[in-house]
Amino acid sequence: MKNIETDVLIAGGGYTGLWTAILHKQQASNKKVTIIEKGLCGSGASGASGGCLLTWSSKYPTLKKLFGEQ
Ligand SMILES: Cc1cc2nc3c(=O)[nH]c(=O)nc-3n(C[C@H](O)[C@H](O)[C@H](O)COP(=O)(O)OP(=O)(O)OC[C@H]3O[C@@H](n4cnc5c(N)ncnc54)[C@H](O)[C@@H]3O)c2cc1C
After folding, report:
1. Which of 39, 2, 9, 45 lies closest to 24 in space, CA to CA?
2. Does the Cβ of 24 fall within 6 Å of ligand 1?
3. How far apart are CA 16 and CA 5, in angstroms?
4. 33 in ligand 1 pocket by Cβ < 6 Å?
5. pTM for this structure?
6. Is any atom of ligand 1 closer than 6 Å to the C-beta of 9?
7. What pLDDT was estimated at residue 56?
């Protein structure tokens, strides 16, 4: 592997790693963010996810009360 200079190094290109990278870039777009992925980004659990909201759906009435419909 070649030497890399970076501000943030993230191991794993699943939802967790990719969202972490996006949030870092949103906070400081000049920050150099690097993801190291052993296979292909999204090839782990994130690529198999069914896209369901799971436990969030049962919290919907409370979330709506706190934050509104939108
Ligand atoms: C079949 C299935 C269905 C699902 N359905 C849902 C759903 O409907 N709703 C929901 O909310 N959740 C669902 N989930 C759970 C959800 O997909 C996971 O919680 C989520 O994707 C985890 O994301 P992650 O980034 O933490 O992990 P991962 O997606 O597993 O990403 C980790 C990444 O790290 C990489 N990695 C590992 N070790 C190294 C290393 N040493 N160096 C470099 N890279 C490495 C892996 O290759 C992988 O790409 C489902 C999971 C599965 C398996």
Report:
1. 9
2. no
3. 22
4. no
5. 0.83
6. no
7. 73
Pocket lining: 12 vs ligand 1, CB cutoff 6 Å: yes
* Size of the chain in residues: 70
Amino acid at 59: K
pLDDT digits (tens, 9 = 90+) for 2-25: 899 999 999 999 999 999 999 999
Quote the CA–CA distance of 26 and 32 in Å, as a whole number: 12
Closest approach atom of ligand 1 to CA 43: 49
Q: Is the CB of 35 under 6 A from ligand 1?
A: no
* DSSP strands (E only) in the chain: 8-11, 33-36
Please state, in angstroms and rounded to a whole number, the distance separating the CA atoms of residues 44 and 59: 27
Contact predicate 19/46, CB 8 Å? no
